């Protein structure tokens, strides 16, 4: 297992920077026809991570989908209100608490070093603590006009450098950024 520690984001937004619409919906993510089910780099991204950290809201959203559990890596769920993981997901997802530094240390201590950070609030908190090393942001060509923003205020400017940009389905733009330190 690669020992490099890295916290990565892989997420889609609207042109105006929202990750969910005003009702918390994400159906707009599929507004561009994708007849060949192009994964837009997700499978390659997922093959390079060891575990996933997500917030309770994202965890509950994923659990609400009418599909099999989509992850083959351990999922660590951050929550101040969730008391336990539902029985149906106990071997797949794990509740974790503490400061972000403590949480990362706990997860790294289990041998998981390349972490996928998912969920708006969770990503925002990791950015505020300057704990994101790279971001892959896919922009869906739609303006939602409100909803859950990807970015929130951060205490200090965070500089990233563009690694590459790719276009999918002639309409969707995906940019990969690395943190400049």
Question: What can be said about this structure in brief?
Answer:
An eight-stranded mixed β-sheet has the order 5-4-3-6-1-7-10-9. A two-stranded antiparallel ribbon has the order 2-8. It has helices at residues 42-47, 56-64, 100-109, 120-128, and strands at 6-14, 18-20, 51-55, 75-78, 93-96, 114-118, 134-140, 148-149, 160-168, 172-179. The protein is an alpha/beta fold.
By CATH, the superfamily comes out as: Dihydrofolate Reductase, subunit A
- Cα separation of the termini: 25 Å
The gross shape turns out to be globular
Q: Percentage of helical residues?
A: 10-25%
How many helices? 4
List the helices and strands and how they pair.
Blueprint: E1 6-14, E2 18-20, H1 42-47, E3 51-55, H2 56-64, E4 75-78, E5 93-96, H3 100-109, E6 114-118, H4 120-128, E7 134-140, E8 148-149, E9 160-168, E10 172-179
Parallel strand pairs: 1-6, 1-7, 3-4, 3-6, 4-5
Antiparallel strand pairs: 2-8, 7-10, 9-10
Structural commentary:
- The protein has 181 residues and is an alpha/beta fold.
- The protein has a single domain (6-23, 37-172), classed as Dihydrofolate Reductase, subunit A.
- It is 19% helix and 31% strand.
- The chain is built from four helices and ten strands.
- It has helices at 42-47, 56-64, 100-109, 120-128, and strands spanning 6-14, 18-20, 51-55, 75-78, 93-96, 114-118, 134-140, 148-149, 160-168, 172-179.
- An eight-stranded mixed β-sheet has the order 5-4-3-6-1-7-10-9.
- The mean pLDDT is 94.
